[in-house]
Write a structure and sequence with these properties.
The complex is a heterodimer of chains A (296) and B (269).
Chain A: H1 2-24, H2 26-43, H3 45-48, H4 86-122, H5 124-139, H6 142-153, H7 157-167, H8 170-184, H9 187-195, H10 199-235, H11 247-254, H12 263-290
Helix pairs in contact in A: 2-4, 2-12, 4-5, 4-7, 4-8, 4-10, 6-7, 8-10, 9-10, 10-11, 10-12, 11-12
Chain B: H1 8-18, H2 24-36, H3 50-85, H4 90-104, H5 107-121, H6 134-163, H7 166-173, H8 178-216, H9 221-230, H10 234-262, H11 264-268
The chains are: A mainly alpha (296), B mainly alpha (269).
Chain lengths: 296, 269
Amino acid sequence: MPVTDQVKLDDASKLGSLTKKITGHQGMVIGSVIVFTVIAIALLAPLLAPHDPYEQDLMKRLLPPFWDSRGSWEHIFGTDHLGRDYLSRLIYGARISLLIGIGAALISGLIGTIMGVMAGYFGGRVDMVVTFLITVRLSMPVVLVALAVVAIVGGSLQVVITVLGLLLWDRFAVVMRSSTLQIRSMDYVAAAQAVGCSVSRVLMTEVMPNVVNNLIVITTIEIAHAIILEAALSFLGLGVQPPLPSWGLMVSEGKDMMLFEPWLITIPGVALFLLVLAINLMGDGVRDITAPENRN
Amino acid sequence: MAGETASDADIEAIRKLYGFDRPILVQYLDWLQRAIAGDLGKSYYFRTDVSTLIGERLPTTMMLGVSAITFAIVFSVPLGVAAAIRPNSIIDRVALFLSVMGQALPSFWFALMLIILLSVNLRLLPTSGSDTWLHFVMPTVVLGYYAAPAIMRLTRTGMLEVLSTDYIRTARAKGLRPGVVLFKHALRNAIIPVVSLAAVQFGFMLGGSIVVETIFALHGAGFLAWESITRNDLPTVQGLILVFSLFYIVLTFLADLLNAWLDPRIRIS
């Protein structure tokens, strides 16, 4: 039948133009390449790491990286103050950063999206309560509260993920609320309501698909945000605890020796910077491609 | 608090003294009642009133916050305006590049890099303390760069929008000098959302100064927060969180007032 052929053609060209848009967006390409490389490194860490990231060898303390004249290829990025291979710690550290970023963004995304969509869709009293909660949350100093909670409960990967997840939902709620407000006044929502669709059906099939682009953009921002915050908490000694190879913790452990062995802080710092930069570039790319009118 | 070798009776006495023997809710309500009256309790570690303790440390943090937000505005508003005048020019691209870079730079790492470069290699600035204005230069830059990208982007978008309006075209058409059009007509309208953003960012900065103050050993409220957290000095931590939250609320309120003053349309509604 010619009609199905037509549909097929349309689909193909749509997919083609999307691929073209993605590959034509410089930032998106650079960002995605770095992000997917880091994800691959994190997944394949046991295969890629040349040494055990926890194995100490006090005879080989503070070896310089390969570009130094005293460096060797056995420890490409040198060793830290306990003689642990720096490259291996860096590779395993990617797991921690990604786990924290994605975990915290999932929790906060769930909380923020539910609150924002409810407030935007129902309005009235629900909106008032949600707006109040957002204001309360915004007035709390994030770093201070996170540090205090971690200090009381004790630092572990799960605690840091939970604390950050419970603190970073504000942007999700704000953006989801305003985009749901916009969608709610559309004719197709009124049509769905008139046909007699249940609230949950309207939310899932009419509202959610139209706010999902914004959701993706905010998710990338918050993943990057959580990764930076975890590094800052670990740097202050109240985040992920040793001997875990968190990048922030590596900077913290290296800072006392930074005058003579600056690579101890430059290497994990550059890794952190590149990952966060790449995630932000990807987020900007998604926004430019899906909703150019929201460019800020 | 009682020490490693304390007897059971000593521990019990201390529990009574600080009121730890009461239920959590009672302790909280008691704290709340006193806090409303301005009494934030006594610090476990410093053994002085939390309010005097915070009062002593706040000026340093305020000074850092004010200089950081000034730095951020002075740096990013002109850049945002310049970028908006010629979109996609070299200046626009440099501004975008700086803002993307700035957002990805972890502040603690940026601070350490500045110390290595400016203090250790070039020997220009002191690394820690708060004695002279030179001690505030690096903390100001580190804290200020954090707010700069957002302010710059908002200035740029606002200017782009305003510059394409009819009244700007009219102003140009009647032969006003470009400088007058730009600053008197355009910037005044574009700056309104930037004012509230700057106020919010200022509030975040005061709360975020904890990282910067710890690295540069600036003895402000942020450093006090870190000290108290590592010493389990709960009344001080509680007091600081309250003070920082209050600052944020006051600042957003001031931003609303300032907006009304800048924009007559808000005043009427």
